[in-house]
Amino acid sequence: MRKLSANYLFPVNGEPVKNGYVVVDDSGTITEIGALEGECADTEFYNGIIAPGFVNAHCHSELSYLKGQFRQATGMSGFINQINELRNVAPKEERLEKIEQAFNDMYREGVSAMADICNCDESFGIKSKSPLYTVSFIELFGTDPAEAEDIIEGGRKLRDLAKRMGLRASVTPHACYTMSPELLEMAAEEGLKDGIISYHSQESFQEEELLIKGTGELAENYKGRGLPTPPVTGKSALPYFIERLLSFAKAPVEGKILLIHNIATNQESIDMASEKLKEPYWVLCPLSNIFIHRELPPIDLMIENNLEICIGTDSLSSNTVLSIIEELKCLHKNFRHITLQQLLTWATINGAKAIGKEETLGSLEIGKKPGIVLIDNIDWNTFSLTEKSRSTRLI
Question: Global pTM?
Fold first, then answer.
């Protein structure tokens, strides 16, 4: 049993509590929450704020061996070229070592759960032993319709292997520009049988130009490699994706749908998603967006529409760190009007809802087991993060 307190406690499901405390039993379950009154000899007091454990709503842990190897600001076309060039350049032993290191670093900094993209089984053994709760998204792509059935079958086998190892897993489509319409529909339908998919949505304006006009750097990249491109629809990428979903499901489409990146989203896309999808979650990976595109999503538009926003880190091929607190600092720096309470909501309870674990994770409530995180070096005058703010797991 431990009693922990700080300058402020952020339960997330309620207002911050000055000199708040939380009592946690030996299993990590919260048994009591309150505000300190006078001296409490049995209390561990920390300078900073105490918050629930984070949920990393989008990561590619398999790519952790690529840290420091990618050029920045290349756009999506240049990034794809680098992935094709550098993937699997390291031996398997090194790849596994870097995955495990990434898991340990994230857990130490306060991540309690993660939605992780998988293209192979290399992370499965590490996940089965990790204290991190994970959802493994078996990501599929392929532009040749004739290969769709074989690709789906390969995805099913990988998903089933993960489940046999005690992991939660779901097949998922990658993005509209890497998939034939047939494979996109089949992968989404297969994944929604498990109730959840993760989809790279409107990740760049190159993607938008490809779908709307059939032109631009991404279009030329695919044509130059002799690969088919998606049909030119005159529509944004998210409406195109939703139309594929409606080919096999009725609106509002059931299941949790994590929409990743959203740099090029717009009001039309938001309106269609809100109308046609039952549970869309809008995942931001700001440091990755800056790394690849030097751009950020229209976050004010997303806030105005009361979207369920979550936070992810993407991969170490498109980021220099896998750190939720660094993602929050990036957002705080670029959108000063977003409150610390909002940021923590995105990084905790919204992510927990997105993966269906809000009953145990995401907020400081009696009976929950979310993990306890200290965030230090707070600017108390503005109640905001600073460049020196760090997160550390306490429990």
Answer: 0.97
